[in-house]
Amino acid sequence: MSSKVKGRRQFRRIVQQMPDAAREEVIEAFGRAGLRAQAAMRARAKHKTGTLQQGVKYKVLPKTLRLQVGLLGTKRGRSKLFYGFVLDKGRKAQTVTISRGKRTGKTMKVRQIVGDHFVSGRYPDLRDSVIREVKPLFNRILARIGGGGND
Q: Which domain does 66 fall in, by range?
């Protein structure tokens, strides 16, 4: 899906040519944006025990200049938060066959859960604030690279 984004190769080339000082500026800006996004997601997450809220993390990938926010980590690390994905996306009502325990082979009705989209939801105000912070930074960096100036 990411291969269909126009200008991806050009952007990757620009990121590779970016001076170290400019890269550090972008990483710091993404770090601040990640903290804000993490706080917003934690505020919308269910908090019966607080474990799900603490599972919302962010990470900035400095090589590719990507920001990831959500239920991150290895599959094993997320295993205790498996229900976070169900609460985020939801679940349809269904009848399932029990495959473990003493009642193996019997059927059970499972209720529907409407997803609250605390990770996958839209955060337009947060997105706008990140764009307002990062766009001028990229404009300045691109002007420096285009002008041939090195930091």
A: 7-147
- The model's pLDDT over 73-100, given as tens digits with 9 standing for 90+, comes to 888 878 889 899 999 999 999 999 999 9
* Rounded Cα distance, 56 and 84, in Å: 10
- From residue 147, alpha-carbon distances to 14, 24, 50, 96, 140 in Å are 13, 20, 50, 63, 10
Burial of 56 (0-12, 13-18, 19+ CB in 10 A): buried
- Nearest-5° Cα angle at 112, 111 to 114: 145
* Total domains, the chain: 1
Q: Look up the pTM and report it.
A: 0.80
Domain annotation covers residue 78: yes
Q: Domain for residue 2, yes or no?
A: no
| Alpha carbon 90 to its chain's center | 18
